[in-house]
Design a protein that fits this description.
The chain is built from 13 helices and no strands. It is an all-alpha fold and 306 residues long.
Length: 306
């Protein structure tokens, strides 16, 4: 019962964090553009996220005649459910919930995110949505390979699939200091995995109107983007735990990585699609495999010494 109550409380906090993360993004992008962000609703715009939620959920839902009705309705709920399931891997102080093979669980849940993009684009019965879904499908699958290999490399190095063991392994030395290049590649893959700039090709407004979610409005649009921002927060948390120790200044590390996602969106232009795929298969994947072999050799070397 304590575990269930803790998890439900965590989910409420995550949804509130998502609301204020959208406000932070609009503020940061505003100052990058040398303008103010939202500042009218409440003190300094603090109630703007709640105003947006009320507006979105009260809008009319439009349905096309030839769309797959039930799948069209199901996809936003499925995306939000996947985002909330991710948070079973949260770092609890008193072990209310502890997934023993948390890294494997993370890979299993993240691989299901492909179906949100594919089903959302296909069920909309729109050529723009379908093209965006195909792009997003190829992108997420491509970068998920390198993401998994980097994760397995960290598992080899730390000797455990559990997130607590990886944190204990960094008790005296953050892995970031010895694996700066690996952390950079991980963050690039994480941005591509969450469909964030400059890798948001599945939502290319200039050529696909709005990508795979073009037909979604009202609650469907809101749920899809709540899931996206929740995934960004979770990827920032996992990155912090894997490379920045996880304890002590955990909240500061988490906020810094979340801010990095916003800074990249405000400063970098969208990648061209062929360059995006070339980066995944020609650069990041060979580097990830090389790091995996290097970590495996180091682990064998240490075992032979001991």
């Amino acid at each position: 019962m304590i575990s269930l109550m803790s998890y439900l409380l965590l989910l409420v906090m995550v949804l509130i964090s998502v609301a204020f993360f959208t406000l932070l993004e609009r503020k940061v992008l505003g100052y990058i553009h040398l303008r103010k962000g939202p500042n009218k609703v409440g003190l300094l715009g603090i109630f703007q996220p709640f105003s947006d939620v009320i507006k979105l959920f009260s809008k009319e839902v439009n349905f096309s005649h030839f769309m797959n009705f039930f799948m069209f309705l199901l996809v936003p709920l499925f995306s939000l459910w996947l985002m909330l399931v991710f948070w079973l891997n949260f770092l609890w102080t008193y072990n209310q919930l502890c997934v023993e093979y948390s890294m494997i669980f993370f890979l299993c849940v993240s691989s299901l995110g492909v179906y949100v993009i594919l089903w959302g684009g296909w069920s909309s019965n729109s050529k723009y949505a379908l093209l965006g879904a195909f792009r997003g499908l190829a992108q997420v699958i491509s970068y998920e390979v390198s993401l998994a290999i980097i994760l397995i490399s960290m598992v080899f190095f730390s000797g455990s699939y559990g997130i607590f063991d990886i944190i204990d392994f960094q008790s005296e030395f953050w892995l970031m200091w010895g694996c700066v290049n690996l952390m950079g590649v991980w963050l690039v893959s994480a941005m591509a995995e969450t469909n964030r700039s400059p890798f948001d090709l599945s939502e290319g407004e200039s050529e696909l109107v709005s990508g795979f979610n073009i037909e979604y409005g009202s609650y469907g649009f809101a749920l899809l983007f709540m899931a996206e921002y929740g995934n960004i927060i979770f990827m920032s948390m996992i990155s912090s735990l894997m490379f920045l120790g996880g304890l002590g200044v955990f909240c500061l590390n988490l906020l810094a990585l979340m801010y990095l996602f916003l800074l990249v969106r405000g400063t970098l232009v969208r990648y061209r699609y062929d360059k995006l795929m070339s980066l995944a298969w020609s650069s990041i994947l060979p580097f990830s495999i090389l790091v995996l072999l290097l970590f495996l050799l180091l682990k064998l070397f240490f075992l032979l010494i001991i």
